[in-house]
Amino acid sequence: MNLRLDTDVCRLFGIRYPLFLAGMAGGPGTAELAAAVSEAGGLGFLGAAYMEPEAIREAIRAIRAKTGAPFGVNLFTVSLTDRNDGVEAVQGRLDAIRDRLGIERAGAAPVRTPDRFEEQVQVVLDERVPVISTAFGLLPERLAARAREAGMRIVAMATTVREAMLAEQAGCDAVVAQGAEAGGHRGTFELDEHPMGAAVGTFALVPQIADRVRIPVIAAGGIMDGRGLVAALALGAQGAQLGTRFLTAAESGAQAAYRKALLGSTEESTVITKAFSGRPARGIRNAFVREWEAGGLEPLPFPTQNTATRDIRGAAAKQGNAEYLSLWAGQGTRMLTDGQRAADIVAEIVGQARAMLG
C-alpha cells in the first residue's frame, strides 16, 4: 500500500495537508482557531450553528483578515421547531440546578428557539466561503444548488454507511465518517432508528464507507496525532478531522474550567448524553449529567432542551464551574497538550505522519 499525505482531499480543497478542524459550535471553535489551522496548511472550520447571522459574517471576515487560505463554516441542518411537551417537569428538574447556581428559576414557561438557519446559510453564500459543511443531515437541495453555483465545496458528516451514500447521492464533495469515539454531537441523520446516535467505531466505519462511496472520506473520532492520521489513510480515508485535539490549543475558545476538566480526564471519562441539548453528544460525565440521569426524565427534543439549559451553562461558565458545563470531548483526551499553538499542533501531527510514512 502506497500511503502519502498528498491525497485527493488536498487537491480538492486547495490545502497542503489532509487535516480538517472539526466545526466546534458553542464557543471553542473561534475564528482565530479556524484561521490558524488553515494558515498552517489544514482546513479550518468555524462552528457557526449557534451564532447570529451577522456574528457569522464578522467571524468569516476575521478569518479572512488572518489568512488567505481556504476555510469552511459548519452548520446544523436539523429543524429548529420547539416541542414543549413535558416542559414543566423538565424545567422543574432544571430549576433545582438553577437554585444551586444562584440564578433565576424558569418555571413552566414554554421554550422558544429562533430558527435562523436560512439566514445563516445566506451569510455563508454572500461571503462566498470556500466550504460549507453540515451535521445532523444534508444541506437542502435548493441551498446546495446555490452553493455549487457559487463554486463552494459541500461536506456532510455521516455516522453510517447509508448516510454516507445519501451524502454522495446528494452531490457532496466529501463525507466525514464520524466514529463513536468522536466528541460533541453525533451527526446521525435520523434519531428514530438510533435514539442515542449511531455508535459505530472509527476503525469499523471508515473502511466500510470508503468501500461504498467514490467521494473522498474524512475520518473522525479519536484521532489525535500522526499515528491516527496514518491509520485513517490505511483504512481508506483521504484525510482526518480533529476536534478534541484542538480544544486546549492557545486559540481555542474553551473556558479555563473546561480546559482544566479536559486535561484531567481520561479515555474512560466521557459518555454519550442527551442531557444538555436533547441530541446525543459525547462529553465528560459531570454533576449535570449525573443529576439528570438520576432524575429519570427524558430531555426535551433538540433544540428545545439546548435552549432550556443555556442559562445554566452560561452561569456555570461565568462561575468557572465545570460541573454544569457541557464538556464535549472525544475519547483521546490523554493525548491533549496545554496551550500549544494550533500551527504547532498541525506541524507535530504532520511530522509524525511523515516519519511513519518514510
From TrEMBL:
InterPro entries: Aldolase_TIM, NMO. Its cofactor is FMN. The keyword Flavoprotein applies. The keyword Oxidoreductase applies. GO terms for molecular function: monooxygenase activity. It comes from the Bacteria. Pfam families: NMO. Keywords: Detoxification, Flavoprotein, FMN, Monooxygenase, Oxidoreductase. Transmembrane segments: none annotated. Belongs to the nitronate monooxygenase family. NMO class I subfamily. Nitronate monooxygenase that uses molecular oxygen to catalyze the oxidative denitrification of alkyl nitronates. Acts on propionate 3-nitronate (P3N), the presumed physiological substrate. Probably functions in the detoxification of P3N, a metabolic poison produced by plants and fungi as a defense mechanism. This is Probable nitronate monooxygenase.
